[in-house]
Specification:
There is one protein chain. By secondary structure, the protein is α/β, with parallel strands linked by helices. About 40% of the residues lie in helices and about 15% in strands. It is built from 15 helices and 15 strands. The model has no long low-confidence stretch (mean pLDDT about 95).
């Protein structure tokens, strides 16, 4: 089976979405499919054993001129005109030029007749999907992967808001669910959630979760940062917290845990690794009186973060405070891959909770201080007995593997 993959970026250092996309592409190869990857990373990137083509940005066009002119005017005036432009046209001039660039790149493909065309994106881009809408010859083979709700109004609270050009964006996504052969989601709950907005996708939904990928690199040979002692009882949150993922209750629960277990103060750590967030001031202030809490200055290389996740006693998945979390976090497979216990903090209705199961012992609502403290204490007592805590979940290892991926795609009907 031949699959043409059209993707925003395969640079794993630029976002969690790119990491998830690269893991999926690599596992497609590992599952035995023949791949051709067209990517818009704006740089040459090679994936071992996979044919990759970097799509060039069109730099001699009226759209390119408009996008750069707008950018320069914004720099000078300090006024962002994008909301006004998106209200009028639905998208930015840059978006339109990027889509045109991707479409032109795809029209140059020769000597590769795909059985399926898979579009992957990051954040709220969906540029590859927009490009495929303009190539109707591939609609009957189109696997449209939808990693997050779209547009922003379709997000659950507290993420939802009506953005400029909302109706244009909604009409655009209706076309995706209408024209594609199948709509792929990383999460069952996300598929059901989006079905409430796009009922025309009914019968097309396929669940392809974010993937585990065991690289050949020996993770043990990668040096962890000097601030991380693998011999400590490390509770690690890796990744962006954004404004909606509130860690304050976790920090307070950890502080109470230390107060009740004073012996743990010499070797228990709560670490936050990732980009800056709106909670940095709180964490920095807390560090002044609680040295066991650590916040990285900024983003760290992916391999270093993976090495820390492998060496941590506990990995944290922190979700937003709200009624439902339909997302499958990009780091969920990384956490499962480590086989270390996950401290899951999120709503009752959550894809992560659904996968871990109703009986999973270390789940809590984000604001339940007593329950979080109790989980930390139980994990710590187990760690004292056996420093190498293991969460043995062969069911999830299979669900996130190339074998399950192959089984799912082979069963699709053209």
């Amino acid at each position: 089976m031949r699959i043409l993959v059209v993707v925003d970026s395969i640079n794993i250092e630029d976002s969690s979405g790119s990491k998830a996309n690269v893991a999926l592409i690599r596992n497609l190869k590992k599952a035995g499919f023949e791949l051709l990857v067209y990517h818009y990373s704006r740089k040459k990137i090679n994936l071992d054993g996979i044919a990759c083509v970097s799509i060039k940005e069109i730099k001699f066009s009226f759209l390119y001129f408009l996008s750069r002119t707008q950018r320069e005017i914004s720099k000078i005036t300090k006024i962002n005109s994008n909301p006004k432009i998106e209200s009028l046209f639905g998208f930015s001039f840059t978006f339109f030029n990027d889509v045109k660039s991707i479409k032109k790149g795809l029209m140059n493909i020769q000597n590769f007749q795909p059985d399926w065309v898979l579009t992957l994106s990051i954040a709220s881009s969906f540029r590859p999907h927009k490009a495929l809408l303009g190539l109707p010859q591939w609609h009957s083979k189109w696997l449209a992967y939808v990693h997050d709700p779209y547009p922003m109004h379709s997000y659950p609270r507290p993420y939802d808001w009506v953005e400029p050009g909302h109706q244009f964006k909604r009409d655009f996504f209706w076309q995706i669910t209408e024209k594609s052969k199948y709509v792929l989601y990383p999460s069952k709950i996300l598929s059901e959630w989006m079905g409430g907005y796009y009922y025309n996708q009914y019968g097309k939904e396929i669940i392809i979760p974010h993937q585990i990928f065991n690289e050949n690199k020996d993770i043990d040979s990668i040096l962890v940062p000097t601030f991380f002692n693998p011999n400590d009882f490390n509770i690690l949150h890796a990744g962006s917290m954004m404004d909606a993922r509130n860690p304050i209750t976790l920090v307070v629960a950890f502080e109470l845990f230390l107060a009740q277990n004073p012996d743990a103060k010499s070797h228990a750590k709560l670490l936050f690794i990732g980009n800056k967030s709106s909670f940095d001031t709180f964490i920095r202030d807390k560090q002044k009186t609680l040295s066991q809490v650590f916040r990285s200055d900024d983003y760290l290389p992916f391999q270093e973060v993976m090495a820390m996740q492998e060496a941590a006693a506990v990995n944290v998945i922190l979700e937003a405070i709200g009624p439902i979390s339909p997302f499958l976090p990009g780091k969920f497979p990384h956490c499962i891959q480590t086989q270390k216990p996950i401290l899951l903090l999120g709503p009752y209705y959550s894809e992560s909770k659904r996968l871990l199961g109703e009986e999973y012992p270390y789940w809590s609502e984000v604001n339940d201080i007593e329950k979080i403290q109790s989980h930390i204490n139980k994990l710590y007592q187990s760690w004292l007995e056996n420093k190498n805590l293991i969460m043995n979940r062969p069911d999830l290892m299979y669900y996130l593997s190339p074998k399950y991926l192959r089984k799912t795609l082979i069963e699709l009907k053209p």
